[in-house]
Design goal:
DNA Primase, Chain A; DNA primase DNAg catalytic core, N-terminal domain; Dna Topoisomerase Vi A Subunit, Chain: A, domain 2; single chain; disordered C terminus; four-stranded antiparallel beta sheet; 4 domains; five-stranded mixed beta sheet; alpha+beta; 31 helices
Length: 662
């Protein structure tokens, strides 16, 4: 065979199958999901008008549900373009930027040797498994039992034990007819010119087989049982079979467990992966005892566009997260990024699920933050920004960091996102320092820093400083921050008038609607009258509802609300809107309304916490609280920007009852 399976696997891994097929088809925009690597087109093998040809980058396969053809990169080219198999391999290798192996009369011999090395590694894995269950493995079994692993889990991951002997494995393999050269080529012994007699590489260690993408044993990781061992964990050295930077522990199992929409979780070590699997969380991988590398991250992206990287909450975890950010930024692109989850301090995934079950870990993963959040927090949480120079330094750092992003479009969006965060953080025209007459101390944001003195020299300036720091002029004028004036907010008016003009919603969704609350007291009164009218038996329609409102003296107020929505061109809230459009507009406004109220509650809680921390002089807590408050205000700013969505309801979906026109 001219091309080894490992070479073919390598170029398949590097080139998405959609890149090969996309040169011959036009992808269907409606059915295709590019972020998931899920592509649809009309089949190039038979004539059709609707797309039934599907390919999936994650699996590297295509299939037509019309004519039944299926295959991989090479079969597509051999069948569609009538290329020979070597020509198809050459085509894909060119796309991957990989040179074809030079013609070598010994290639077949090397491939046979590689296959035989895999056989040797399988023998070694079986030997370690047997030793774990034998008399010498008692200490190792006790260790695994103390770590909470069941016999089923141990068997599933093929855990083993390497005896505390310099030659136990070597002698076992030799007795099975394995030659010295093969044992050395597998990295199972330590050997060299200065070593007279080779000896077993792994001794007195829990053994973790490391599998290839084809689930063949290609290496081992060993965890020392002796506290005096030079290295707690030891991996196989680089061999013909094993290149550490291109392998992830548990990769194939995790890829199967993810499915098309699953989340791939990256943790730090073997035991974390195994403990999570025992808790029912199978979609977990780990690098091999070192920081995640570029090729390993690309492997993770083959499974999912947004893997979640899980780090410990201590300083070492923070450093690891920062290294990962620096690694990922040049590699991310549209629909390809990552999220970062941070564990509670002092906990690793193994500890968490063993002591508290899987629910706390699931919550950690659900709270994972996008990469942009981590970039911002890393830079904004590492300094004091009370002077123009320090703020300019922060801006320069953010510009330098986002410049690492190679994709031009994504880099532009990141830069805009950082500008928005700066705007929400510092506020337009905000003045820093001691500016209020009669007050001592200014206040500063920073690590370990907090507001200075307030009136009478008391520590009370921190809360006032945070308010001035985090709320921009635009936000301070918004309904979210300042409350509401003579007229209710447009969102609240949209909700009330949509239901008033389409009262059938009161019957269909009465329980949910009855729980709604509004900031405007006038709207709350109108809402209560509407709910009371709906709860009375007998005939109920828009006419009867408005009669009830008139009887309560709300006629003039309702007229002003009607004028407000018509001036804003919110057609979905008017009586002319079709029922389905009214409901769609209502749901959008309701989502914004609920999130707005949640943000107000969070803001109040954080301000109260900051005030208490300031009063207590807790300088360590205040920076984190300030960052959290800043993020609340940033989201509030984004919600304010989404007013344009409400304003556009009438334009985007204003279909009247009589037809589809606006």
């Amino acid at each position: 065979m001219r091309f080894s399976p490992s070479f073919l696997d390598d170029i398949r891994e590097r080139v998405p199958i959609s890149d090969v097929i996309g040169r011959h088809v036009t992808w269907d925009r409606k059915k295709t999901n590019t972020s998931r690597g899920d592509w649809w087109a009309c089949c190039p093998f038979h004539g059709e008008k609707s797309p039934s040809f599907h390919c999936e980058d994650r699996k590297g396969r295509y299939h037509c549900f019309g004519c039944g053809v299926s295959g991989d990169h090479f079969r597509f080219l051999t069948e569609l373009e009538s290329l020979s198999f070597p020509e198809a391999v050459e085509r894909v290798a060119d796309m991957a930027g990989i040179a074809l192996p030079a013609p070598d009369p010994q290639a077949a011999q090397r491939q046979r040797q590689r296959a035989s090395l895999e056989d040797v590694m399988e023998m070694a894995a079986a030997f370690f498994e047997a030793e774990l269950q034998g008399p010498q493995g008692a200490k190792a079994r006790a260790y695994l039992r103390d770590r909470g692993l069941s016999g089923r889990t141990i068997a599933a991951f093929r855990l083993g034990y390497s005896p505390d002997s310099r030659s136990a494995l070597k002698e076992h393999l030799a007795s099975r007819g394995v030659g010295k050269e093969q044992i050395e080529a597998c990295g199972l012994v330590v050997h060299g010119p200065e070593i007279a007699v080779s000896y077993d590489r792994f001794r007195d260690r829990i053994m973790f087989p490391i599998l290839s993408s084809r689930e063949r044993v290609i290496a081992f990781g060993g965890r020392a049982l002796s506290p005096t061992a030079p290295a707690k964990y030891l991996n196989s050295n680089e061999t013909e079979l094993f290149h550490k930077g291109n392998v992830l522990y548990n990769f194939t199992r995790a890829r199967r467990a993810c499915g098309p929409d699953g989340t791939l979780i990256v943790v730090e070590g073997y035991m974390d992966v195994i403990a999570l699997a025992q808790a029912g969380i199978d979609n977990v991988i780990a690098p091999l005892g070192t920081a995640l590398g570029e090729n390993q991250l690309k492997l993770a992206w083959r499974v999912t566009p947004h893997p979640v990287l899980c780090f410990d909450g201590d300083e070492a975890g923070q450093r690891a997260a920062n290294r990962t950010v620096d690694l990922a930024l040049p590699l991310i692109g549209p629909g390809r990024s990552l999220r970062i989850a941070v564990l509670p301090p002092g906990k690793d995934p193994d500890d968490l699920v063993r002591q508290d079950g899987r629910e706390p870990f699931d919550q950690v993963i659900e709270s994972a933050r996008p990469l942009a959040d981590i970039v911002w927090s890393r830079e904004a949480g590492s300094g004091v920004f009370e002077t123009p120079e320090s703020r300019a330094e922060l801006e320069a750092k953010l510009r330098q960091t986002t410049a690492l992003i190679a994709d031009e479009s994504l880099r532009r969006h990141y830069q805009q996102d950082m500008r928005d965060r700066m705007q929400a953080f510092f506020g337009t025209g905000h003045r820093f320092g001691n500016q209020d007459k009669g007050r001592s101390g200014g206040g500063a944001y920073g690590r370990g820093g907090y507001g200075g003195g307030g009136r009478d020299g008391k520590r009370g300036g921190g809360l006032q400083f945070v308010r001035s720091l985090a709320v921009s002029d635009r936000l301070s004028q918004s309904g979210l921050v300042r409350g509401h004036g003579a007229m209710p907010s447009l969102r609240e008016t949209v909700l009330v008038m949509t239901v008033a003009n389409h009262p059938q919603m009161l019957h269909h969704e009465f329980d949910e609607l009855s729980a709604l609350e509004f900031d405007d007291k006038g709207l709350m009164r109108v809402w209560q009258v509407m709910l009371d009218a709906a709860s009375v038996g007998g005939r109920f329609d828009r006419e009867r509802l408005f009669e009830a409102l008139e009887a309560d003296g709300q006629g003039a107020f309702i007229a002003r609300l009607e004028t407000q929505i018509r001036n804003a061109r919110i057609w979905t809230a008017t009586v002319e809107a079709a029922a389905e459009d009214a409901h769609e507009g209502y749901q959008q406004a309701l989502a914004l309304h609920k999130r707005t109220r949640e943000l107000k509650w969070q803001r109040a809680e954080l301000e109260r916490d900051i005030a208490e921390a300031t009063e207590a002089g807790d300088g360590e807590a205040i920076p984190g609280l300030m960052l959290a408050l800043q993020e609340v205000h940033l989201e509030a700013a984004r919600l304010e920007n989404q007013e344009a969505i409400i304003d556009g309801f009438g334009v985007l979906s204003g279909r009247a009852k009589g037809g589809r026109g606006s």
